[in-house]
Amino acid sequence: MRIATFNINGINSRLPNLLEWLAGTQPDVACLQELKAPQDRFPEGAIEEAGYHAAWVGEARWNGVAILSRHGPPVVTRRALPGDRKDVQSRYLEAAVNGVLVGCLYLPNGNPQPGPKFDYKLAWFERLIAHAGTLFDTEAPVVLAGDYNVVPTEADIYDSRSWKKNALLQPESRAAFARMLDDGWTDALRERFPHEAVYTFWDYLRDGWSRNAGLRIDHLLLNPQAAGRLVDAGVDAGVRGREKASDHAPAWIELRN
């Protein structure tokens, strides 16, 4: 079973790229972030024609997450991250698909920092850690996939000198991610590539793609039941090089059935 995560950076403007990737790789489940479309502007018809059922939480202009499934409609269990009823940003969607519980998340960017946006990022991360704790011992495999907006270590960025003040690299951001790993979640890409440079994001600025000046900020974290079924993981990096591409590439895992 292949589960992928892809920050599409505008689902309607990049729909041809999305459909081409879906047709070429046929993931069983695809988690999408940054839909940048209100609820009624999600391209459900085109997704269905591609062979996928979908659940989504839209938001005008910003954010938005979706879970696509080739195994029937996703059985939605949550449409928001618990812990703050006042938070109306569309950043979390959770659903069961073919025996796997999948959480699709778009963690706040947090820039500029310090400031309220960074405070919101850290507060959201605390809510994620708390909710992940309730899912960890679930008997079913659990996959928390998405754009975490965190570069976990210096091994996950081409050169950190120009990013030192960025919220993605701050000690507080990294510490929150590390706490999830300390709680027992498995970082699937790092499990598969323990010593290699693996990137999922290349900035549009400064020719990031052509220089392979990448960052790893899209992650798939697995509970023990999912980690025990992990067969492979990777990044479809070539998708980033296509015309009018997102600045992210899809990351994926293969789980044994």
Task: Briefly summarize what is shown.
The protein is built from 6 helices and 14 strands. It has 257 residues and is an alpha+beta fold.
Can you lay out the helices and strands and say which pair or pack?
Blueprint: E1 2-7, H1 15-25, E2 29-33, H2 44-49, E3 53-57, E4 65-69, E5 75-78, E6 92-97, E7 100-106, H3 116-135, E8 142-147, H4 171-182, E9 186-187, H5 188-192, E10 201-202, E11 214-215, E12 218-222, H6 224-227, E13 230-235, E14 251-255
Parallel strand pairs: 1-2, 7-8
Antiparallel strand pairs: 1-14, 2-4, 3-4, 5-6, 6-7, 8-12, 9-12, 10-11, 13-14
Please tell me about this protein's structure:
With 257 residues, the chain is α+β, with helices and mostly antiparallel strands. The protein has a single domain (2-255), classed as Endonuclease/exonuclease/phosphatase (Deoxyribonuclease I, Chain A, 4-Layer Sandwich). The protein is built from six helices and 14 strands. It has helices at 15-25, 44-49, 116-135, 171-182, 188-192, 224-227, and strands at residues 2-7, 29-33, 53-57, 65-69, 75-78, 92-97, 100-106, 142-147, 186-187, 201-202, 214-215, 218-222, 230-235, 251-255. The strands form three sheets. It has a six-stranded mixed β-sheet with strand order 3-4-2-1-14-13. Helix 3 packs parallel to helix 4 (171-182). The longest helix is centred in the middle third of the chain and has 20 residues, at 116-135. The radius of gyration is 17 Å and the shape is globular. This is Exodeoxyribonuclease III Xth.
